[in-house]
Structures are given as structure tokens and as C-alpha cells.
Design a protein that fits this description.
Elements lengths: L16 E10 L2 E11 L4 E5 L6 H8 L7 E6 L2 E2 L5 H6 L2 E4 L11 H6 L5 E2 L2 E2 L1 H13 L17 H14 L4 E5 L7 H16 L3 E5 L3 H7 L2 E6 L2 E7 L5 H9 L18 E10 L3 E9 L3 E5 L6 H8 L7 E6 L2 E2 L5 H6 L2 E4 L3 H4 L7 H6 L3 H4 E3 L2 E2 L1 H14 L16 H14 L4 E5 L7 H16 L3 E6 L2 H7 L2 E6 L2 E7 L4 H8 L5 H9 L4
Parallel strand pairs: 3-10, 3-11, 6-9, 9-10, 15-22, 15-23, 18-21, 21-22
Antiparallel strand pairs: 1-2, 1-4, 4-5, 7-8, 11-12, 13-14, 13-16, 16-17, 19-20, 23-24
Bound molecules: adenosine-5'-triphosphate (ATP).
Adenosine-5'-triphosphate binds next to strand 2, helix 1 and helix 15.
């Protein structure tokens, strides 16, 4: 049943930005059709929609990275045309994409002032620059020493914070944040929100794209919902709830599912880590994953979670300890070596490690398990490949006109679902997933969680590294908290959010301390 629309928000005064009747085609695909969007000064404005709804396309048009086929564009009441990203920046429109657009070889300070260095006479005024950068970084809780650190040495989360600091230094009037929280954990999200609130109070308008619907209620004033390339409307956040917003996005009633799987802790051990270490990244990490269980590693950014998962699929070097896969010694030096030994994976950096961008979807799904499709010697069984691809496209609701579509033409979330689909073709013995639902919409996230339950029910041992606490709580049979590069504590299904968060930031609740002392910790 179609959800009734809540009242549209009303505007008073001149909008900072207004788009009317904007459309954009990519060949036969109508990415946006007749979209309207009004942004007021000093507001935090969310844009939400399912994967492929047209959010990125609209944002690229505003940021000058794409040119609209039709529509008008006004800034502060004046008609304008934005023909390039540089033009947008000159007009005060700054964009922080998910992948930081910084120069890795330069320091944080140099990146922030690149192209508009502060000078005193003919010289760069390093002291004045440094002071400004230190103040900006402090707003994110980052230390002064960052000013002289090379950007390539920072984590993805820290690089993103530097990108926002750079936008602040450029005195942006409009700041576009494209899924800023996707790579952040809760403590860093708090810092992000503080910075966003400060900017909004200074009159900067913020466009905030996210799939984490719950966070909108903390940080946004209004939300524009997109569906199938159209803007459904802009609503005051106070008239909505997460459920109502999800219904608006999907155009019906969204029913999330809770896990009904019984944890099976009696299966055989399929993956074991013994005192594993990797230089200063992590040390003394020991745990086992049995067939039929989902073990989740959760920790704040910098805790070592991503690196530990990376070591299991050969993307992170191991300097001490050992691993066993299916009872055999296991020390992969590359992802392909890990795969040959029987481990399927969804790596964290999917753009670099996971996709064959210029190949069609069906190739990207079948490439991991070509042997399944070889019916006669080296011949591919195309019919089987097509059926498998069709089934997975349906199961994961991948939005695409056909399975021949190149993966580079899909929206970010849909491309990610293709990479996941590849791992599920050949029910693996051990599956390692890094941030499995990052960037996908709420419906697809639910599908992905159900698929994890399913593969697990069939006896697969699943290891998940995630920074999304709700995801961790939803899927984990055992939840291992990683802190300062090592296992801090472990919880079983049903643990509260507060206990896990406290553990991740280095505290144990009185209840947990008592249980640990008695050796009954669960
Ligand atoms: N370069 C391109 N070539 C062909 N089609 C494209 C291209 N870029 C986007 N599209 C299509 O336009 C539609 C809208 O994509 P867009 O990336 O704007 O969605 P989105 O709402 O940002 O999705 P997500 O949440 O997955 O990032 C999708 O169907 C997508 O496949």
C-alpha cells in the first residue's frame, strides 16, 4: 500500500539554492527526471532514496561534476549555470565525496591551503596557516601533530575529516557531504555532527546524503526523498520517523526482519587465528569461527578491525602467530591465494579490490567461480551463468536494466551488491565480509543480512568486520570487540548496544567486570 505523504515543508525568504525541473539521462537510463530541490541558508538538508534513486546524480549536478539535460538553477535568487567543479567551488559549493580527494604526498596543512596559501609579502605565512589548521582540526578532535602528517599516512576516516576541514577553510556556502558517516564509528560521528552543527549555525547550508536513516533525526532539519529519479518532496524531519521515511523511499510499507537463526556453536572450526600479529597494526589476536556461526569483529576506527579481516584474505601482512583454514596452515599473501585455499571474501576497498569496472554484471558475478560454469573443458556454460546472475540480481534487488550492463554504470550501492553476489554463487566454506552493507539502502541491507543468515544456515563459517553497531548486533552470534589492535572482550547474541559501545571505547560496565572476574562473561 502506498504510504500517505506527510505535509511538505514551507519556505520563507530567498533560498540559498534552488533547482527546478532538472533531468539527466545516461544513454537509455533516466537517472533523474524533473527533480526539484530547494536549500535554505543554514539548514542541514538530507537527501535519501533507495540505491539507484538518483541522489548521486543530483549531487553531481549541483557540484558541477555533471551537466543537467534540462532544468533551472538559482543561487541566492539569481539564475546561475554551473559548468565545472571549479566553477562550483568558486561559487562556494564544496563537496566531500566518500573517497577523499586529497594529495597523499602532501601534508594535511599543505592540502588545506593548496592553491590559496596565506601570504605575508611574497612569502607563505606558515605560522598563520598552521594556527588556522590547528583550530580546524581541533573541531574534529584531531591532534595538532596532524598538521605536518602526510595525508597518505592517515586512515580513510581521518582523511575525510581533513576534507571537511578543507571545505571549512575554503569558506563554503554550501557543503555537500556524500555518505560521510559510512566509514566512521560512533565517536567520530559525534565529532562530525559537532562540526556540521557549527557550520549550520554560521549560515552554511549542508546537503547530507546517507543510508543510515536513524542519524538523520539527530542532525538534519529537513529531508528530500528521491524515488526512481524523481523528488517526492521535502519534509520537516520532526514530522517523520525512521519507519515512515523508509516507507516513503520504497513507496510502500517497509518491513525489516530480525534474525531468527539459532546460533550453532557445535560446527567444526573452519577458520582459526592463533596469537596473530601484524607489526604495530594488531597483535595477539586469537579466535575461531565455526561452520554455521557468524562472528563479528567490531571496533572504533583505528582499532585494527579492518586490518585483522584484511590479514585473513591476504591484504595485510602477518608478522607473528598463525592461522588455520579448514584444518590446514594458512598464510595467504594475496587475495587470490586466500581464494584458492577456500576462503570467499568481500574486501573493504571494493572499488580497488572487488570490481572489474568495464565488465558486465554477469561477468562480475561469475568471475569468482568460473569452474562452476565450465560445462565442457574450457567452455563456459552461458545459460547457467545467466540464470545464476538473474537469480542473484532478483534476490539482492540489484537495480539494472539488464545483466549485460557494465558495473561502472551502476549506482554505488548496486555495484556493491554485485560484488557480494559473486561470493554467494558458490556457497563457500568460509566467508569474510568487510563492511558488508556500507553504502547500500535500508531494504538491501536487510536482504544482505538475510543472505548472511542463509549461507550460515547451510554451514558456512562467516566472519564480518563492521563499524556499524546495529549491523553487528543484528547478525552476530558472537561479537568480538577489538580495541588497540587486540581482542578486548567478547559478547554473545542479545547483548545491549550500550555494553558493546562501552567496551569499544575501553570501558567495561560493572556487570561485565563482575562477569569477567567470575569467568562467566557472555
Ligand atoms: N555513468 C553512468 N552511466 C549509466 N548509468 C548511470 C551512470 N551513472 C548513474 N547511472 C544510473 O542512474 C541511476 C541513478 O544513479 P545514482 O548513482 O544517481 O543513484 P544513487 O541514488 O546515488 O544510488 P546509491 O545509493 O546506490 O549510490 C542508476 O540507475 C544508475 O545505474
Amino acid at each position: 500500500m502506498a504510504a500517505a505523504l506527510p505535509p511538505q515543508r514551507t519556505v520563507e525568504g530567498t533560498p540559498r539554492l534552488s533547482l527546478t525541473g532538472v533531468s539527466k539521462r545516461y544513454g537509455g537510463v533516466r537517472a533523474i527526471r524533473s527533480a526539484d530541490f530547494t536549500l535554505m541558508p543554514g539548514e542541514v538538508h538530507a537527501v535519501v532514496g533507495e540505491n539507484g534513486a538518483g541522489k548521486s546524480t543530483m549531487i553531481k549536478i549541483i557540484a558541477g561534476a555533471e551537466y543537467a539535460d534540462t532544468g533551472t538553477f538559482e543561487m541566492d535568487g539569481e539564475p546561475v549555470q554551473v559548468r565545472s567543479a571549479a566553477e562550483a567551488l568558486n561559487m562556494g559549493i564544496a563537496t566531500v565525496y566518500q573517497e577523499a580527494q586529497l594529495f597523499g604526498q602532501l601534508t594535511v596543512g599543505e592540502n588545506i591551503f593548496l592553491g590559496r596559501e596565506k601570504t605575508q609579502g611574497a612569502r607563505i605565512d606558515w605560522a598563520a596557516q598552521k594556527k588556522e589548521v590547528v583550530d580546524l582540526l581541533a573541531a574534529f578532535g584531531l591532534p595538532e601533530s596532524f598538521v605536518t602528517r602526510k595525508v597518505e599516512e592517515l586512515s580513510a576516516a581521518e582523511q575525510q575529516q581533513v576534507s571537511i576541514a578543507k571545505a571549512l577553510a575554503e569558506e563554503a556556502k554550501i557543503l555537500i557531504l556524500d555518505e560521510p558517516s559510512a566509514i566512521l564509528t560512533d565517536a567520530e560521528i559525534d565529532n562530525l555532527f559537532t562540526a556540521v552543527r557549527r557550520l549550520a549555525a554560521e549560515g552554511v547550508s549542508i546537503i547530507y546524503i546517507t543510508h543510515r536513516l536513524d542519524e538523520l533525526f539527530e542532525i538534519c532539519d529537513v529531508v528530500t526523498v528521491m524515488r526512481d529519479g524523481e523528488t517526492l518532496g521535502t519534509f520537516d524531519i520532526e514530522h517523520l520517523s525512521v519507519g515512515a521515511l523508509a516507507d516513503l523511499m520504497v513507496g510502500g510499507e517497509f518491513a525489516g526482519s530480525a534474525s531468527t537463526r539459532d546460533a550453532d556453536s557445535t560446527g567444526e572450526v573452519k577458520l582459526a587465528l592463533h596469537h596473530l600479529g601484524s607489526g604495530r597494526r594488531f597483535h595477539d589476536v586469537s579466535f575461531e569461527v565455526r561452520g554455521g556461526e557468524v562472528v563479528v569483529l567490531y571496533g572504533l576506527v583505528g582499532s585494527g578491525v579492518a586490518e585483522i579481516a584484511g590479514a585473513t584474505y591476504g591484504m595485510q601482512s602477518v608478522t607473528s602467530g598463525s592461522m588455520e583454514l579448514l584444518g590446514r596452515r594458512f598464510r595467504p599473501r594475496s587475495a587470490s591465494e586466500a581464494q584458492r585455499a577456500g576462503l570467499a571474501m568481500l574486501p573493504a576497498n571494493r572499488k580497488k579490490e572487488g570490481m572489474f569496472s568495464f565488465q558486465p554484471i554477469n561477468f562480475n558475478i561469475s568471475v569468482g567461480s568460473l569452474h562452476l560454469f565450465r560445462s565442457l573443458g574450457v567452455m563456459m556454460n552461458r545459460a547457467k551463468e545467466r540464470t545464476t546472475a538473474d537469480n542473484l540480481i532478483k534476490a539482492l534487488s540489484i537495480k539494472t536494466p539488464s545483466q549485460e550492463q557494465k558495473i561502472s554504470a551502476l549506482s554505488g550501492g548496486n555495484a556493491q551488491k554485485v560484488v557480494l553476489a559473486r561470493q554467494l554463487v558458490n556457497r563457500p566454506e568460509v566467508l569474510v565480509l568487510a563492511e558488508p552493507s556500507q553504502g547500500v539502502d535500508i531494504g538491501a541491507k536487510d536482504e544482505i543480512h538475510k543472505l548472511i543468515d542463509e549461507v550460515c544456515d547451510e554451514g558456512t563459517a562467516v566472519l564480518v568486520a563492521t563499524s556499524d553497531l546495529m549491523e553487528a548486533l543484528r547478525i552476530a552470534d558472537r561479537l568480538i570487540v577489538i580495541r588497540n589492535g587486540t581482542t578486548f572482550t567478547e559478547f554473545s547474541r542479545g547483548v545491549s548496544q550500550a555494553r558493546v559501545l562501552a567496551a569499544a571505547s575501553g570501558e567495561l560496565s560493572a556487570e561485565d567486570q563482575a562477569e569477567l572476574a567470575e569467568g562467566t562473561h557472555s
